[in-house]
């Protein structure tokens, strides 16, 4: 039987009759009239093709079909009630939900250990899924509620998307400690351009912020390796003569030689994005505040 053919408003009536075993008491429990209960039961009988209840000396006795479906019906009604209650009054310790985040591997490294530590203590029923959604798909996923938040650089979005700036991160050039240029006091533009570089991007092609800045100077660097993830790139630097232009917050985690860039590159701004439909949701507000506070730390 197709679920869309069933009037879901009838199932609370079914549950009330099952609990009270009496049409009048079911009506009182639901705050409706007894004829309205009888009418709802008649509609359910026609829809399901079963009497559902039969009269007996002890009241309305459930049929085998009713007995078989009631545990699931009661579970579904309970889950729906809990969801509606959570929407009105979010209690972190009682929450049961999955938080879905879009971010890259660098953001995962910074955020997830701290986030899971907080959730374990304050909201143990919240699970977390982290994956990276392409920027052109972010608006669609947030609108469809298949994604709760995105951590990304500021990108053009629709008026339906809310965003908050979290932090800024400047770029540095990273070389291994015993690189031939490691003893230099600073790095010149010509030295930078003579190096072979690692470029980090989840896309198969396209420039980075440093490439765009060099293009404005009429210059171009030599990209030797293109990788998807920031976490693997420093490991390559530590074993080769390749250079990596990388956010300072990541570069400073490694024992490497770090140089200020010899040209101007805009800082990397991290933004938190969410859909405006979720803006006033208590659960979204609580999680949003936690994410912001963790990043600010």
Outline the fold blueprint:
Elements: H1 10-20, H2 23-30, H3 34-48, E1 53-56, E2 59-62, H4 64-88, E3 97-102, H5 105-122, E4 126-131, H6 138-143, E5 149-152, E6 161-169, E7 171-175, H7 189-194, E8 196-200, H8 209-216, E9 222-227, H9 233-237, E10 243-247, H10 248-251, E11 257-260, E12 268-275, H11 282-296
Parallel strand pairs: 3-4, 3-5, 8-9, 8-10
Antiparallel strand pairs: 1-2, 5-12, 6-12, 7-10, 7-11
Helix pairs in contact: 1-2, 1-3, 1-4, 2-3, 5-11
Question: What's this, in brief?
Answer:
The protein is α/β, with parallel strands linked by helices and 297 residues long.
Please describe the biggest sheet, giving its number of strands, its sense, and whether it closes into a barrel. Answer: 5 strands, mixed
CATH topology of the largest domain: D-Maltodextrin-Binding Protein, domain 2
**CATH homology superfamily name of the largest domain:** Periplasmic binding protein-like II
The first-level CATH class of the largest domain is given as: Alpha Beta
- Stretches where pLDDT is under 50 for at least 5 consecutive residues are none
Count of separate structural domains: 3
SS element count, helices: 11
């Amino acid at each position: 039987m197709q679920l869309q053919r069933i009037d879901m408003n009838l199932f609370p009536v079914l549950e009330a009759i099952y609990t009270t075993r009496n049409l009048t008491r079911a009506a009182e429990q639901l705050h409706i009239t007894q004829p309205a209960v009888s009418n709802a039961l008649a509609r359910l009988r026609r829809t399901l093709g079963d009497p559902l209840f039969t009269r007996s000396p002890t009241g309305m006795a459930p049929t085998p079909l009713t007995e078989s479906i009631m545990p699931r019906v009661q579970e579904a009604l309970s889950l729906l009630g809990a969801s509606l209650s959570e929407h009105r009054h979010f209690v972190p310790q009682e929450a049961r939900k999955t938080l879905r985040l879009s971010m890259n591997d660098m953001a995962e490294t910074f955020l997830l250990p701290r986030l899971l530590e907080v959730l374990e203590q304050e909201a143990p029923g919240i699970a977390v899924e982290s994956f990276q959604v392409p920027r052109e798909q972010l608006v669609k996923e947030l609108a469809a509620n298949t994604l709760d938040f995105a951590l990304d650089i500021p990108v053009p979005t629709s008026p339906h998307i809310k965003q908050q700036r979290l932090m800024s991160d400047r770029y540095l050039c990273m070389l291994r400690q015993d690189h031939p240029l490691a003893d230099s006091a600073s790095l010149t533009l010509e030295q930078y351009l003579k190096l072979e570089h690692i470029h980090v991007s989840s896309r198969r092609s396209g420039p980075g912020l440093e490439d765009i800045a060099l293009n404005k100077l009429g210059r171009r660097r030599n990209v030797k390796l293109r990788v998807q993830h920031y976490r693997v790139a420093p490991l390559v630097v530590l074993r080769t003569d390749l250079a990596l232009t990388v956010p300072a917050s990541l570069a400073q985690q490694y024992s490497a030689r770090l140089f200020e860039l010899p040209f101007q590159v805009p800082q990397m701004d991290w933004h938190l994005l969410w859909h405006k439909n979720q803006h006033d949701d208590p659960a979204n507000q609580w999680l949003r505040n936690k994410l912001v506070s963790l990043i600010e730390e």
